[in-house]
Amino acid sequence: xxxxxxxxxxxxxxxxxxxxxxxxxxxxxxxxxxxxxxxxxxxxxxxxxxxxxxxxxxxxxxxxxxxxxxxxxxxxxxxxxxxxxxxxxxxxxxxxxxxxxxxxxxxxxxxxxxxxxxxxxxxxxxxxxxxxxxxxxxxxxxxxxxxxxxxxxxxxxxxxxxxxxxxxxxxxxxxxxxxxxxxxxxxxxxxxxxxxxxxxxxxxxxxxxxxxxxxxxxxxxxxxxxxxxxxxxxxxxxxxxxxxxxxxxxxxxxxxxxxxxxxxxxxxxxxxxxxxxxxxxxxxxxxxxxxxxxxxxxxxxxxxxxxxxxxxxxxxxxxxxxxxxxxxxxxxxxxxxxxxxxxxxxxxxxxxxxxxxxxxxxxxxxxxxxxxxxxxxxxxxxxxxxxxxxxxxxxxxxxxxxxxxxxxxxxxxxxxxxxxxxxxxxxxxxxxxxxxxxxxxxxxxx
Length: 446
Fold this sequence. Notes:
The chain is α/β, with parallel strands linked by helices. Helix content is 50%, strand content 15%. The longest helix is centred in the N-terminal third of the chain and has 25 residues, at 109-133.
């Protein structure tokens, strides 16, 4: 089978390839196509993959191309991990927002809206090409904002696009471990939007273990989310929020941490990865060793500003281990290609899962996956406070989709102004103008 990776020069591609190397069963991926508009980056990543494949019998062949149509033709699976505007664009998203005193994180608030407006036209073009060139292919979307991009692509290729994220996987793994449960045996009662979800239950053999965690302050304060949110707040909520909810619940503290930092997260990654790709220009650079050292530094600094604002300290070593989105992607491909039933938390169309949203709204929810694709599972109703936030953010996503479709500046302003983390229509107008100036790709907003 053939896997096309769009954004094949992306830094995290070796994680996906490493997962493929461990898959030795029939019906596995035998050919990987790296598509990227930046040829030097794709060539650098191809070198890392070659190091990984050394000595591995029947390792998937790797092809590098700058031709999108060539990458898509014959693909069984398409992994979309593009970054329109690169990390310089992400750094600019943060900078423009922080100048207005609001959050510029790449998927949340003003930064997420700007990133979506840049990305949606490209994602829609990809979806149309998939429909024309590889209509039987399954698209696995990791491009952020993952839920928003998945919903835009689903309008053209329906349920054959599935969004993935490693954040809920990590949350479930951490809590199961705390409670002495095997993560694979635990059923997660989790629902929301991408980077906006809540865990309301963790069941093992029909017993919900989450109340035991919520009643134990010591346990609550011992893991990543507990350190971020604090035991008092988690006990007040009665559910465990996705780590990205820290941007909502402690917004002022996070914005202050971002503005006080020497560099934003985007600027840090831009500079770090620029060094990596520059080092890879030398033929003598040990490719995998250089990549792995850079990856370790990246993981150690994940959500550093939020942890600083919360006084959460450094990440635990177990939270920096592999087993995130690449494992979700591999499990998803296995379930579809081999009809191996699996349960995964995915970004899919709502259907009737959340009655507050329409059937086409993309949500993040546990799904049973088989050869026919994902099927959302029944979940507990969202608490009232969560329902309000989900509905508000989904309304913003719909305005972003409308602005990308129409090119309307006024609709883009509406999207920014309606977001819970942007508190002023005047600020929204300045954000749109600031982003149009920073990103030539937003010149279509008139």
